[in-house]
Amino acid sequence: MKPTHSIKYIFRKLLINALYRRYVANNALIQEDIVQTLKVRGSKVQSESIKKQFSHLMLYYPDYAFIFFWRINKPKYFWKHMFVKDIPCKIFGNTKIEGGLMCYHPYATVINAVSIGKNFQFRNSLTIGNKGNDNKRLPIIGDNVTVGANVVIIGDITIGNNVVIGAGSVVVKDVPSDCVIAGNPAKIIRKLEDG
């Protein structure tokens, strides 16, 4: 490692320790995000302490770091550039998202919903928003929902628990729990047995 890389790495580790103490150590919601992200990615650090898990994610997963800075409501944190490059993604501050939030490549994503349940996973180019530019007409999304790339979810609709939404889908109607949907407009492809 070059000297400048070593200094940057040490500085990042110091920042991570400070961020951990201030925002993670006593925050169950952020800890749920950490655990879910490592579980889904099959990381070997799952058995380590939550502090080591957090450090690993901040050092090697800029997608997680993006979610972390959104969670702590610090989108313009001075040292954010040490962990996240410019990611064009917007999660509205009024959107309530439970623990276990996880993303793969959040580029070109806008999320504006009433609420989103536990263990929400999404991929790039996701649009969740209102219908007719009316913020009273926003989606409600349940627990354990996984969303593919290039999905659009709009309007005052409800998506149940344990739903998988296929890539490229356009969701404009309510979706029951325990199913896989896909298409434009999205339709039920199959039911999930043990949701």
How does this model look, in words?
By secondary structure, this protein is an alpha/beta fold. About 30% of the residues lie in helices and about 20% in strands. The protein is built from 4 helices and 15 strands. It has helices at about 5-25, 30-40, 50-60, 60-70; strands spanning about 90, 95, 100-105, 110, 115, 120, 125-130, 140, 145, 150-155, 160, 165, 170, 180-185, 185-190. The strands form 4 sheets. It has a 5-stranded parallel beta sheet with strand order 1-4-7-10-13, with no helix packed on it. Strands 2-5-8-11 form a 4-stranded parallel beta sheet, with no helix packed on it. The longest helix is centred in the first third of the chain and has 22 residues, at about 5-25. About 30% of the residues are buried.
* Mass-distribution shape: elongated
Percent helix among the residues? 25-40%
Spatial ordering of strands, largest sheet: 1-4-7-10-13
**Portion in strands:** 15-25%
Order of helical and strand elements: HHHHEEEEEEEEEEEEEEE
Please state the average pLDDT score.
93
- Total number of β-strand segments? 15
Indicate the structural class.
alpha/beta
> Which value, in Å, is the CA radius of gyration?
18 Å
Main sheet? 5 strands, parallel
**Please, how many helices?**
4
Q: Which spans have pLDDT < 50 for at least 5 consecutive residues?
A: none
End-to-end separation in angstroms reads 47 Å
